[in-house]
Write a structure and sequence with these properties.
By secondary structure, this protein is of the alpha/beta class. Helices cover 24% and strands 40% of the residues. A four-stranded mixed β-sheet has the order 1-4-3-2, with helices on one face. It has a four-stranded mixed β-sheet with strand order 5-8-7-6. The longest helix is centred in the N-terminal third of the chain and has 11 residues. It is globular, with a radius of gyration of 15 Å. The two termini are 22 Å apart.
Length: 129
Amino acid sequence: MRIHLTSVFVDDQEKALRFYTDVLGFEKKHDVPMGGEDRWLTVVSPEDPDGTELLLEPDKHPAVKPYTNALAEDGIPAASFAVDDVRAESDRLRALGVRFTQEPLTMGPVTTAVLDDTCGNLIQIVHGG
C-alpha cells in the first residue's frame, strides 16, 4: 500500500495553483472541471511526476473553515513537504515574498520551517531525519 493522493483545502483554486506551481515549484498534473467553478486540480513534484498527487481542494464544505482556521491559529501545518535544505529553501521563498510563521528550526537531526500558503494553510518544509 502507498499514498496515492492527499489534499489541502484552499480558499481559491486558481490562486492556490499559482502559489503551489510558481512559488513552491510543483507541476500541475490534473485540471478537470467539476461543475460550477470547482475543479479536480492536482499538483505533483517535478522530481516524481507519477508519485503522490496533492489535491488543491475547494474549502466549500461548512466544516472546513472552522477546521483550517483552528489549525492556522494554533500554528499547526496542514501538510509537510521535504526539501534538500530548509534554510536555503526558506531564503529562496522569502525572496519571492513568502511569509514564514516559523523560521528554520533545528531539532536534533531534523530542520523545519513553516510558511503561509496564502490560501488558508500553514505548510511545513522539512529536511533531515
